Every structure is written in C-alpha cells, then in structure tokens.
Amino acid sequence: MNFRRSALVATLSVVALTAAACGGDSEETATDVPVADAPEFEEGTTMAELAEAGSITIGTKYDQPGFGLETLDGELEGFDVEIAKIIAAELGIAEEDIQWEQTPSAVREEVIEDGEVDMVVATYTINDERAERITFAGPYYEAGQQIMVAADNDEITGPESFTENPELKVCSVTGSTPAEQIKQYLANEADQLVLFDEYSQCADSLSNGQVDAVTTDNVILLGFVSESDGEFKLVGEQFTEEPYGIGIEKGDVAFCEFINETLAANEEAYVAAWEATAGQIEGTQTPELPEPAECV
Ligand code: GLU
C-alpha cells in the first residue's frame, strides 16, 4: 500500500463528509477560536510584529495522519495544524493568512535559526540539544517512542528484539529523536537502521517488506496503523518520553510565554482540536494540556 496516496484518499473522503455536514464550508477550523480583532502587544515584540504584518509562517509536517497531513486539495489538517491556528488566532491572524512550510524532522532547528519560519509545530520533542539552538514553548502533548510492525509479525515484541536478531531492519527518520534512541538496541547499526526523510517513506518500506519495523512516537505510528487497513500493528510499550514543544527563535522568551498563556487560555479549543484530529484515531486518548516548562 502506498501510504502517501492512501492517506490522501482517506482525507478526501473526510473532507467530502465535512463539506456536506457544514453545507459546503470546508474552511471551518476544528477549534473555532475567534480571530482576535486588532490585538495590542508591546512594541518590538514578535507578537506585535506578527500582528502588524497580519501573517505568520509556520513549519509543520505534511505526511503524518492526525498531526500534520496535506489533503488532496492542498489543505493541511491535524492536531499540530490546529494548535498553530489557535496561536495565530490570538495574534489576530486568520487561517487563510498562515503560510505553511513543510518541515521534515532534520530541518526544524535550521529553518527557525534562518528565520524562514516564525514557529515550528511538528511533533517536535523538547530536548537539551535542540534547546541550545532554539527556544521551545510548551509542552502541549506527551508522546512516547514505540514500534510498528506488520500485523502478522510475531517475532518483534519490543526494541530488544533488534539486539537479539541482528538481521532485523528498523526504519526511522533522519534528525529525529527515535532514530537516535533506537541505536542503543541495535546489534549492528549500519545494517539494521534504515533512515528516510519522512515517516510515510518508512511506512511504504514496511509495506513492501524492505524493513521489518518502523520506530517513532506512538501517536504518529497509530496514525499509520489506522490508515493501513489491518496491515500494521504496534508492539511493546512506549520506551521513551517525547514531550512536544513549539519551536521559536532562540531566546524569544516573550513569544514563548505568549504561546504558553494562549494555550492555557484555550483549553476547550485544545480538546476540540484533539478530538477533531488525532482523537479520531483508534487507540488515542484525549490529553490534558501539560504544565508549561520555563521559557529559556
Ligand atoms: N518527536 C520526535 C522528534 O521530534 C519524533 C517525531 C518527528 O520526527 O517529528 O524527533
């Protein structure tokens, strides 16, 4: 099965249903946060600049069902997309004034440092190494790394299976935390670890039998399982913690605090965003907004 294509086809039918339910208004957001009318911010802040510009550039994923997925008509949908829209709305920026930029895992710090995007909302784990280059708002969700295999695979039961069976191959994405964290379980990294730029490429490789497993965050994998029509399953427990943050320019504490306050003030929209997106996937649970970390 081609996971890019199947994701798009599934999305098309959802869009058609939504359009019917909303009388043709497929523009409606899941979260329904009103766009602030001429909000005022302290001069010189990122918020003031963005509010005045009336537009914002946001990096996200385009191939991850439930979090950031491009539909056939070029729209984006997913929990990350909705979180980004909530923040934009509080800046007085409507969703049609958001410029989206596809940001695969490996380029996220770079696009923030280069000023190509104003923020990244892209299943982006907060960690110390990344925090040396950028500032994280959040966390807004807590994921954990897990393993996905073909539904008829009884050999792989967790990460230790790769230590015990050096012939098994596992796929992940360049520049991701799961790609790093799986290495300690590999008997032979050079042969066992297969890296692509995007997880949909890993899902295709699993489908083709080129690899035996895919590893990344549980919620990302659940999205592929739900698209797979019974072809894939998750095995074992989550074996890491992956708190998702919103990446912004290093040291922009005021913007970071604004983002945290915005999420805290919109908990209802946060839950609605989840339920309309990742919450539709079997096996997911509605989260509570975590306590924010200090902005540094
Ligand atoms: N949350 C992990 C990370 O930030 C994996 C998901 C991803 O690659 O986007 O690296």
Automatic annotation (TrEMBL):
<dbReference type="GO" id="GO:0005576">
    <property type="term" value="C:extracellular region"/>
</dbReference>
<dbReference type="InterPro" id="IPR001638">
    <property type="entry name" value="Solute-binding_3/MltF_N"/>
</dbReference>
<keyword id="KW-0813">Transport</keyword>
<feature type="signal peptide">
    <location>
        <begin position="1"/>
        <end position="21"/>
    </location>
</feature>
<protein>
    <submittedName>
        <fullName>Amino acid ABC transporter substrate-binding protein (PAAT family)</fullName>
    </submittedName>
</protein>
<dbReference type="InterPro" id="IPR051455">
    <property type="entry name" value="Bact_solute-bind_prot3"/>
</dbReference>
<keyword id="KW-0732">Signal</keyword>
<feature type="domain" description="Solute-binding protein family 3/N-terminal">
    <location>
        <begin position="55"/>
        <end position="278"/>
    </location>
</feature>
<comment type="similarity">
    <text>Belongs to the bacterial solute-binding protein 3 family.</text>
</comment>
<dbReference type="GO" id="GO:0030288">
    <property type="term" value="C:outer membrane-bounded periplasmic space"/>
</dbReference>
<dbReference type="Pfam" id="PF00497">
    <property type="entry name" value="SBP_bac_3"/>
</dbReference>
<dbReference type="GO" id="GO:0006865">
    <property type="term" value="P:amino acid transport"/>
</dbReference>
<dbReference type="InterPro" id="IPR018313">
    <property type="entry name" value="SBP_3_CS"/>
</dbReference>
